[in-house]
## 1
Amino acid sequence: MSSSTDFHNQRSRFRSFLDRFSTDSLVAPDPLTDRTLVAVIFILTFIAALTAGLVLFGSAASARWQALLSSEVTVQIRPQPGRNIETDLTRAADFLKQVQGVTKVRIYSYDETMRMLEPWLGQSSSLGGLSIPRLIAVEIDSKAQPDIPAISKELARDIPGTAIDDHRSWTRRLTTLGNSLVIASAAGLILVMTATALAIVFATRGAMVGNREIVEVFYFMGADDRYIARVFQRHFFRLGLRGGILGACLALIVLALLRFVVAGTEGLRDMFGFGIIDPLSTVGLAIVIAVLAVALFVSLLASVVSRITVHSTLSRLV
Amino acid sequence: MQAHPNRWGGELVRFENVGLRYGAAPETLTDISFSILPQSFQFLTGASGSGKTTILRLILQSLKPTRGMISIFGQDTAQLDKDGLTALRRRMGIVFQDFRLLDHLTIYENVALPFKIRGRMESSYRAEVIELLKWIGLGDLLQAKPPVLSGGEKQRTSIARALVSQPELLLADEPTGNLDPVLAGRLLRLFVELNRSGTAILIATHDIGLMDQIKGGRRLVLQNHHLQVEG
């Protein structure tokens, strides 16, 4: 009985403590304006959250592609007069297998090579015994990469017409593309946040003008600027949180749909990798966290901007 | 209606040669001098537009005088910073002519607002607010909202809100302006009761009949931008 009373008293004290900080609904609700602001914040948060999610998605895909490219080199052997290209391929493969850091060597057969060229040259049957360069795919340990220039020099000395492509130009392009995407997205996010902040400024000013008499009542009852700012700050934080959560939820739904599309399409699944689109993977969790962080940030932005706006408007209002 | 010295031994309000003009227009108020003593009861009267509300605003410091000196609770208002002004306003109560109730809050929440603004815990004032509302006959309307109240009920709520923090000075702007004579008389008796319990009262009104109900009440009469003290 006594512990029940203690619990009741503690709960009552806790409620009173919360009430001390509560400024609930002291700003008169304006359904039309509030709903419009929530809708604006919802749209802007959706754009910002989707952008953040796609940036992480794109960065992860770019990193995956770079990792794949840097873990493989391609040896090309051009046919040389007086030389048997099949023998050269076997010799090159044998040499490569002995190099430290090389994990797998695979010679592409003549038929496989022709199939690769089909999109440009058409059916192989019509080409007869056309002499074409041949490829060896070499997988390397990306953590302990072999000395590619030395291998290249060695092969070229022993087998004329040999060249190694370590995909550096592609890696560079991908890095540039990835960085450009991140910078463009960051600029987009800044613009969206600025638009959000401006929308909050206008809404706060509108709310203050609409609540001018209430603000005056607060003043005459002994409220100071800090209290009035807190009242509006709380009001706009809630509106921001409502719009932010709605925007983040829609962004997560769109990203989840994107995941299903990627997972269900063979070419895309190979391109992006299943690990990236798995919501329980590191990248998947990072995307979810980033989207939720955008929603929270928008709410905090609404809160801070409204507070600053109230302070700058109060002196002119009353 | 005897005035008694307050704990710091001075007037609650003192105006000395106060003038107020808006821009380049002629003075709205000229050489206004008067004082309000603790526990005193006075009317501020004059024709509509004579400046009654303006004087209340000057006391509340939502307007600054163009010239002259205003002292509130012994402090020169020209020297006040924002925190000082807030502290002074917390010692006053105001009843607005148009009530200024927050329509989206209940009667209880409206009356409890001064406590909430001051950061007090609800458990510390709940009983006090309910008791006051019962005393002024609104005990059954705690959860009602202003839009459903009659003019008299709104006015009593407004008065309760001004009184709940037991101010040393109560300012009322045309508190009976929207009420019938019977209800106006009852509200006036409420103000007299409050005055007896120690609150100084300043009622701005142009209702001569209302003022005549208080024998010996002091009158501050505004006429032609000047103020004359009677009684």
## 2
Amino acid sequence: MTFNAVKTTRRSFLAGAGLVIGFTLAPKVFSASAMEGVPAGGDKGLSQINAFIKIGPDDTVTVLSKHIEFGQGPFTGLATIVAEELDADWSQMRAVHSPADDKGYANLAFGLQGTGGSTSIANSYEQLRNAGATARAMLIAAAAAEWSVPASEITVEKGRIKHAGSGKESGFGALADKAATQTPPTTPKLKDPKDFALIGQELPKLDTVGKTDGTAVFTLDITADGMLYAVVAHPEHFGATVKSVDDAAARKIAGVVDIKAIPQGVAVYADNTYAALKGRDALAIEWDLSKAETRSSDELTADFAKMVGTKGHEAANTGDVDKAFTGKDVQTLEAEFVFPFLAHAPMEPLDAVFIKAADGSVDVYNGAQFPGMDKKVAAQVLGLDADKVRVNTQLAGGSFGRKAQFGSPYIAEAAAVFAATDGNRPMKHMWTREDDIRGGFYRPMYVHKMRGAIDAGGNIVGWDQTIVGQSIMGKAELDETSVEGASNLPYVIPNLRVISHNVSLAVPPLWWRSVGHTHTGFAVETFVDELLQKVGKDPVEGRLALLTKEPRHTGTLKKVAEMADWGSAVPEGRQRGVAVVKSFGTYVAQIAEVSIGDDGAPRVHRVWCAVDCGVAINPNVIKAQMEGGIGYGVGAILFDAVTLGQGGKIVQSNFHDYRSLRINEMPAVEVAIIQSREAPSGVGEPGVPPAGPAIANAWRRLNQSPVRRLPMVNVGSV
Amino acid sequence: MITFKLNGQQRTFDGDPDTPLLWVLRDFEKLTGTKYGCGIAQCGACTVHLDGTTRRSCITPTSTVEGSEVITIEGIDGKEAEAVRKAWIAIDVPQCGYCQSGQIMSAVSLLQLTPKPTNEDIDGAMAGNICRCATYHRIRQAIHDAADTMEG
């Protein structure tokens, strides 16, 4: 079988249109074109109306997404916003990734280009409404000039531009070139939200079809003539470095091309993936552990716990907490929670393709969550000016935070692997699942120490929480991401103290779907539930009584209680638990129905979920993110931990001991969206945090045993 | 030299016979719809049909497919495949989409064997396919929907 790669210099010019259109129309393809990487920015043959919108002669409207599509729906959501203000028909909408540009395509919440914090819709909403309305005005101006009629008499509806008086009518395509040369209005008129025709509809997703027939292109699918396949041997201890390598056996393996030491380990280059993997297996490497983390997870837990009570960073301190705990007839409750390291484990492991063009510039293809950062880092490692590197963001097989990293360490590794070659062969660098599970950048371990005080009247009067763990942001001072959800506790408790301790480890930390809320949501929502139970209050009513300043928490909580018919009889052998967490501006309440499974582990039957994310751009996508967030949260809470064994060696390696939720463990999920006129907020992460505590609260009612240490199920032996 | 039928066409492979079928499909045949997810038959992203039943191509040495018929996501057709794809699209099952080739190959096989599956049948047939986006809720629904359309 032959495979003719388009020459890199022509690739970006030629490959766009076919792929963009193929992506949504998705003919069944066996041809080589399906394997090309998708150049950023879409087809250059289209008329560029503004930074976010291109229009084709066939009337297609291509939205340039500054956010990566890895399943959370920005292609569809962002195209919906544009189509709404443009008065386009949904069938003409397309989406592609924008080029990397930290200025023009900055996430307005970050100040650089990036996807994360469930901000894609929130930060783009006004920007893309304006982009769509601007493009609409420019199309109208073009039509007015073309037809010599007043612009004020022209209407646009479902992709058709019309002038009633003259009977003239056109699609967008015929006027696109002319529209592109019009002066954009300084303040385009936006629609009144009550007139929205597309926002709020369950429009079909733009990226579904190509994901049902194998034609959607992910980074790992990119091939090019003469491509090298590279893998890197990494240490099994964090902080370890290569002391010596014996590569004699590896070099004898057919297909192995070269082996090089790089700062991150030992790179093996081969003519195909299997030869690269076999070559890596055949390496004999001695590692230098002198700077490695050699403590086990149990030792780390003990060391973390010792920090409680020492001086930390004060994240909240209202009232007089010490006094609240020593008041007359005060009852107290204490708890210590231990949270493990969590790997993100996206289905597509980290990967990147590097291809050098004839002029020495380099195309990088990867699932870029911080494209501008990836570009800078790749250029730096390759010794090129940043304008000589093009980052082409590809669809990614999940991320959950894994691909958003300051300093882009993964791209630094991939670039180092490429830089160690002569650069004349295109190169694909991939991680295996083992590299992924053992690769660090975990949701950090945390220990929470909680104390609650209840007065003689049964009121929660004191809350004292200490959180010990790594600062995800690498701060020496208070890191808000360590305490979010706790320091801004939604419950009105007069005496509140939250203390944070940062610890420093050789295990690199990272945000993981819902960041600090992964642990604060669990600790807060299980602990408040226990306090309420201690005073005989209903978990829903008790929460509502403490949420006097939080109408949107209250709205979701009441809604979810209504959905589950809270208070009605629960099937024999089951219990229900509730939790409500605000994260990333979105409010989510969940009720989980749980029993004890045959194996003694929790069996989660159903989850009801109410979400308030402001204006619902696409209810179908919102529901999907809640369903998926719940599944991700349930899996983690039940099964997941990366542990360091004796001597600090990483224990887990793949899906057999880092368990993912499977279909037979997935609860039935019912989602309701609260109607709202508030500005839209994100949905990628907020479905995760309430799932764990809702389950744990049900579990405590089932067997009177509170959940203090995660995961709930011990997977394999440690 | 290993000879096998791939999506209806006769193919040969003369590389290392231990090479897992997954990498022959992806690196040599350039059929990249079949995905790598774990390499140890834990996730199902690499699922193909081998002589009519599901097989994890990541642990299948290519030497063992001599004379066999391999169908990948690019080549799967028939009424079950059509019904599954339509059902998948109708309710937008995929999120990131990376595991969906494997999910669909398993779902098609299930419907070929069990045209009217129960939830338990679905759990049994699909439990080997991990979806980290947890689209399971919709996978279950789409399989029921596909079964209904095949019946009707």
